[in-house]
């Protein structure tokens, strides 16, 4: 069975986007060499990336461009080559290389895909997809980077989830720039 992980930046008060839907706050301090090396290594993992429409459009507007290649050439090459799934009921096509567009319910589709042979998957960003997959009990590993910022308002990754599944800490890492990486498994 394929595994499904999620990876997201969150603020100290638990939001993945601020009150205006922006994630720019998560890039503050990203020039820290230790954290940049971690981010690049983490992003270069194997598997399939999973996106909702908003995150897909944001990523597709950057990584295949000259700006993406210039900013982080090795990571851009990887992001463009890795298999991707984009969930959207409104997109007509997914033009970014190696992307499969799925228009059905994400929880139903992810449950089916997990039963198929293939590479493990990681949801990047995509709060709505994270919430749906978590509510359906599909996420095998929750990965967060807690950023030293208080937003005061925004969106939680787990809006509308009624269950409170117990989680166990798998690993953690504290960075000099104040960020903390946390990985949890259900259990």
Could you walk me through the main structural features you see in this protein, from its secondary elements to its overall organization?
The protein has a single domain (4-179), classed as Dihydrofolate Reductase, subunit A (3-Layer(aba) Sandwich), CATH 3.40.430.10. It has six helices and ten strands. It has helices at 33-43, 53-60, 66-71, 73-81, 106-115, 127-135; strands spanning 4-11, 15-18, 48-52, 84-87, 99-102, 121-124, 141-147, 154-156, 167-174, 180-186. The strands form two sheets. An eight-stranded mixed beta sheet has the order 5-4-3-6-1-7-10-9. It has a two-stranded antiparallel sheet with strand order 2-8. The longest helix has 11 residues, at 33-43. The two termini are 18 Å apart.
Short note summarizing the structure:
The chain is an alpha/beta fold and 187 residues long. 28% of the residues lie in helices and 29% in strands.
């Amino acid at each position: 069975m394929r595994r499904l992980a999620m990876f997201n930046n969150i603020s100290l008060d638990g939001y993945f986007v601020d009150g205006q839907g922006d994630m720019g706050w998560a890039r503050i301090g990203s020039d820290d060499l230790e954290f940049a090396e971690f981010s690049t290594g983490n992003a270069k993992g194997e598997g399939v990336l999973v996106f909702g429409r908003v995150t897909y459009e944001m990523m597709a507007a950057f990584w295949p461009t000259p700006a993406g290649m210039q900013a982080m050439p090795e990571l851009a090459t990887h992001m463009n080559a890795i298999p991707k799934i984009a969930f959207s009921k409104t997109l007509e096509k997914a033009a970014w290389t190696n992307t499969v567009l799925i228009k059905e319910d994400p929880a139903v589709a992810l449950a089916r895909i997990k039963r198929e042979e293939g590479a493990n998957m990681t949801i990047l960003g995509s709060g709505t997809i994270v919430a749906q997959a978590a509510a359906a009990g599909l996420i095998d590993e929750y990965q967060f980077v807690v950023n030293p910022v208080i937003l005061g308002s925004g969106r939680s990754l787990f809006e509308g989830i009624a269950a409170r599944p117990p989680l166990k800490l798998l690993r953690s890492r504290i960075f000099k720039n104040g960020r903390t990486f946390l990985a949890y498994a259900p259990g």
